[in-house]
Amino acid sequence: MAARIARNQAEAASGNRLFVKMSRGILLKGMMKMAIQHANDATFHTLVQKEGITVVNFWAPWCGPCRTFAPVLEQFEKEANGSLAVVKVNVDENPVTSSQFQIMSIPATIIFKDGKPLYNEVGLLPLGVLQQLVASH
């Protein structure tokens, strides 16, 4: 295990396209790339990017469709290669943020551009539809 970690770190340092997985979901390749972020009422506005695209998913652990959508969102974030931010908000734990965006049904997804909400959708989104929505904004 230690040898594999050392080899991965050496390959990453040499500029190969390999990403080295670090703790807390941070991936390194020259510059840092964040995985899906989990926001709360206090951190939401700092996690929504002031520049660029941020996709925010409102969910709850008891919600079956939310659990179905989770792997789609993870794949979407992975394929985006750091070109946008993906943030999840648990509606049960963060009522202020959920209320601010009038979340009545989940899963709900809001696409932000430069910190401003542009588009929202309630329900499951297939990967291709999510990609098209982001590309159109």
Structural class: alpha/beta
- SSE order, as H and E? HEEEEHEHEHEEH
Regarding CATH, which class of the largest domain? Alpha Beta
- Which stretches of 5+ consecutive residues score pLDDT under 50? 4-32
Helix content: 25-40%
What overall geometry do the principal axes of the alpha carbons give?
globular
The count of strands amounts to 8
What fold name goes in the CATH topology slot of the largest domain?
Answer: Glutaredoxin
Question: What would you give as the CATH superfamily of the largest domain?
Answer: Glutaredoxin
How much of the sequence lies in strands comes to: 25-35%
Total domains: 2
Arithmetic mean pLDDT: 81
Euclidean distance between termini CA atoms: 43 Å
**What's the tally of helices?**
5
CATH structural architecture of the largest domain: 3-Layer(aba) Sandwich
